[in-house]
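Sequence, please.
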């Protein structure tokens, strides 16, 4: 029998160091049940994808997740070519276009239904012309406006940070229009074998009502400003009630292609095949200028870092593609040397 040799009076213990803060970088090692290959997963990994044999496994995050069924890769590439042939700018170059890569990713969104009611008091200026002819003068008056309204709506919110550059906003717009009947519980979904990654959720469903409230109220406020031509909002009250929240994984395809030494990309919604964002060359004599090009290259590093952080668990290949697209996006902002189409 084990005998304790510890003194009866416990010695003062050194203070225990606080536990390390929970970090997303914690990597668990998982062995592929199909081929035995090591797979690295993080706590937010939703679907384990074995890049060696294509094995996929959904991990229940503790809340219901739905999937939008994806069109297959061949169908998206067919749409890519069809689109290129129809575009009068691109059509003459179709023979020179070469697809470099087609990346297929599932991205997390929350779809929420809400009721909103609001009341506001604002100010706007009104200009009037007094008198006529030589005596005419313009008088500017500040007047108060007030109003109220209500609406019911649906909003799609990215379930993850740092994915803005990929056409996420446009994908969100597409998700807002989906028929709920097409949502498939993730547990029952037949995961395709060629997925590059399934990005997990950063936010939990319980955090969504507050986000819906903030986004919807801000949007309504902006709309009132614009519609009523306000110069100032004196008071704004907005009550937003979230009626339902659904976690959804939506597919997105990014086709990267080569043309005349440049690399460009188009993002497609994976469930309905619509084009989300296109970063295309502009066929003019003045392409991107050297200085602006250099500036864009410098910021490309930052974009790459942000995107790499967003896709940590994603297999290494897509990081350069995403950062490349991020770079094009910045370049577009800087000089407009790349056509940015929606
Ligand atoms: Zn495997």
């Amino acid at each position: 029998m084990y005998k304790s040799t510890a003194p009866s009076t416990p010695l003062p213990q050194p203070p225990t160091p606080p536990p390390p803060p929970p970090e997303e970088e914690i990597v668990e090692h998982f062995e592929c049940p199909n081929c035995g290959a090591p797979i690295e997963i993080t706590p937010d990994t939703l679907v384990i994808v074995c890049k060696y044999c294509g094995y996929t496994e959904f991990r229940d995050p503790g809340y219901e997740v739905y999937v939008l069924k994806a069109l297959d890769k061949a169908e998206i590439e067919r749409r890519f070519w069809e689109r290129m042939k129809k575009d009068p700018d691109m059509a003459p170059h179709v023979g020179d276009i070469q697809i470099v890569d087609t990346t297929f990713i599932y991205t997390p969104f929350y779809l929420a239904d809400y009721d909103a009611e609001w009341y506001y008091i604002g100010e706007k200026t009104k200009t009037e012309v007094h008198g006529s002819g030589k005596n005419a003068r313009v008088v500017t008056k500040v007047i108060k406006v007030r109003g109220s309204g209500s609406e019911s709506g649906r909003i799609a919110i990215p379930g993850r940070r740092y994915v803005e550059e990929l056409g996420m906003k446009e994908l969100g717009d597409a998700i807002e229009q989906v028929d709920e009947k097409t949502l498939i519980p993730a547990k029952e979904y037949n995961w395709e074998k060629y997925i590059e990654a399934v990005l997990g959720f950063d936010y939990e469903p319980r955090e969504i009502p507050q986000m819906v409230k903030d986004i919807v109220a801000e949007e309504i406020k902006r709309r009132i400003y614009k519609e009523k031509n306000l110069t100032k909002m004196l008071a704004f009250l907005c009550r937003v009630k979230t009626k339902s929240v659904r976690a959804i994984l939506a597919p997105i395809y990014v086709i990267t292609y080569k043309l005349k030494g440049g690399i460009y990309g188009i993002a497609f919604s994976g469930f309905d095949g619509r084009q989300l964002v296109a970063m295309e060359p502009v066929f003019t004599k003045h392409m991107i200028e050297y200085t602006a090009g250099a500036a864009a290259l410098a910021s490309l590093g930052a974009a790459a870092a942000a995107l790499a952080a967003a896709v940590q668990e994603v297999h290494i290949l897509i990081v350069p593609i995403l950062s490349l697209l991020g770079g094009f996006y910045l370049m577009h902002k800087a000089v407009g040397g790349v056509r940015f189409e929606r």
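Confidence is low (pLDDT under 50) at residues 1-11, 285-301, 305-321, 327-338.
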